[in-house]
Amino acid sequence: MTSESQNIEFKLTWRDEYLKWICGFANAYGGIIFIGKDDSGNVVDLKDAKKLLEEIPNKVRDTLGILVDVNLYQTDQGKFIEILVEQYPYPVNYKGQYHYRSGSTKQELKGAALDKFLLQKKGKRWDGVPVPNVSTNDLKQETFDFFRKRAFRSQRIDEESLADSNDHLIENLQLKEGKFLKRASILLFYTNPEKYVTGAYIKIGFFESDSDLRFQDEIHGNLFEQIEKTTELLFTKYIKALISYEGLNRVETYEYPKEAIREALLNAVAHKDYSGGVPIQISVYNDKLMIWNEGQLPENWTVKNLLEKHASRPYNPDIAHALFRSGYIESWGRGTIKIINECKKAGIPEPVFTYDSSDISVEFRKDIYNEKHLQSLDLNERQVKAVLYVKEKGRITNKEYQEINNTTDRTALRDLETLIELKIIKRIGEKKGAYYELAS
User: Fold this and answer.
1) Do 290 and 361 contact (CB within 8 A), yes or no?
2) What backbone torsions phi and psi does residue 359 show, to the nearest 5 degrees?
3) β-pairing, 202-209 with 280-284?
4) CA 20, CA 13: separation in Å to the nearest integer?
5) Which position has the higher pLDDT, 190 or 124?
6) For residue 21, which phi and psi values (nearest 5 degrees)?
7) 15: alpha, beta or left? (left if phi > 0; alpha if psi -120 to 50)
């Protein structure tokens, strides 16, 4: 039996307020409203069905300005009406209110949500909206100089265009609409974008635990400055480097691959929903690093789409275009794959991407299975040796533990149980067939 869902709604009788539900379906993905059915989809017989068959289409047309198909059905249990609502390419309003179907509920759009909806229906994006009372002369010359140097190196803009005036450069980057600069140009080149866009900055914090923030920083300025300053701060203050030498050359190996972190930061900047007023947040822990931004995946996408080759569909196309021209990002949807590959190359776990409604995050985890970290956990030499063995071979048995450490069955069992309690390894199987793997 059919139940209520994203596209289906049941009503026992008709009320004119259900025009709001029709409005919601028209503004979302279309749907069906059944009049004369209970919440479980059972027919309860609609007494005035024939009259409603004529009235409903007229009320929808006169109030909402759209057309719907209304069908009458006769069953053994009685009559019911089916109202078929198509998705409309333009905004539909009910007496000046804009309703939208989300999941199995209807909501009235207001504020930033309404602005975003109206822009999308017009084929515009938030970053492409014109801003009055700002000219190219108000933008930061140093940022133009920085952009030109990067774009020259990337060879994604010809030298002749780079030699043009700032006005021409802004027009070539499609950051202008008529005589007005777009919001994207403010975020990219203005000295203080927060004057026009609330929350247009980045927060970094170091946490001992979720509730124990030890220190933090805020990075302000335009997006080019935020990218550079955040990257520098992360790799000088928040992320440690192991120092080694190849001959006379000093080599720094960071806990997380620099290219992966930088790519994740660029993704957050390019795909953030700047209308939300919330800064990008980077949380650094002893064993992990998380980058979070408010945003939305393309329609019908899930995290699975990010983990495989996909089309490039930036949430802020004008911002993404400028970042591409400057050589910061690729344009073929390879960013997330690059992040994963860089982590594999560095020998750390694959990052975890998460999407929930309007929250997008990526979590990096350290390779905690190294000798220095294991020794800091007060493990004995046998246990450290065994964990490194598992890291290399993938598993270890009790017998192998005894052999590599030249110890007894009883000692091996005690050592292994301690490693399980510390959640460093996990036991697979029972009795003689049991073996041990890394816990994560």
Assistant:
1) yes
2) -110, 125
3) parallel
4) 15
5) 190
6) -65, -40
7) beta
Closest Cα to residue 402, out of 387, 392, 412, 391?
412
Give SS3 for 6.
coil
- How far is the CA of 387 from the CAs of 57, 191, 245, 337, 436, in angstroms? 71, 51, 26, 29, 10
Tell me the backbone φ, ψ of residue 190, rounded to 5 degrees: -80, 150
Residue 395 half-sphere exposure, CB side, CA atoms within 13 Å?
Answer: 10
- Report CA 365 to chain centroid distance, whole Å: 18
Residue 332 corresponds to which amino acid?
A: W
Q: Please give the structure tokens belonging to residue 387.
A: 């964990």
Residue 322 banded pLDDT, cuts 50, 70, 90: very high
8 Å CB contact between 38 and 12? yes
Amino acid at 52: L
Burial of 383 (0-12, 13-18, 19+ CB in 10 A): buried
Instruction: Give the bridge partners for 71, in sequence order.
Output: 82
Structure tokens at 95: 């007496």
Tally the C-alpha atoms within 13 A of residue 302's C-alpha that lie toward its C-beta: 1
Q: Which one, of 218, 245, 252, 246, lies nearest residue 233 by Cα?
A: 218
| Long-range CB pairs of 106-109, under 8 A, 24+ apart, other chains included | 106/20, 106/21, 106/24, 107/24, 108/20, 109/27
Phi–psi pair at 14, nearest 5 degrees:
-90, 135
CB 348 within 8 A of CB 365: yes
Separation CA 12–CA 22 (nearest Å): 16
Q: What's the alpha-carbon Rg for the chain, to the nearest Å?
A: 29
In residues, how long is the chain?
440
Give the span between the Cα atoms of 379 and 78, in whole angstroms: 75
Nearest residue to 257 (alpha-carbon basis) of 177, 153, 347: 347
359-365 vs 435-438, strand pairing mode: unpaired
Residue-wise pLDDT tens digits, 22-63: 999 999 989 999 999 998 889 988 888 889 999 999 999 999
Query: Among 162, 136, 132, which Cα is nearest to 149's?
Result: 162
Tokens of 159: 């030298």
If you average pLDDT over residues 195-223, what whole number do you get? 94
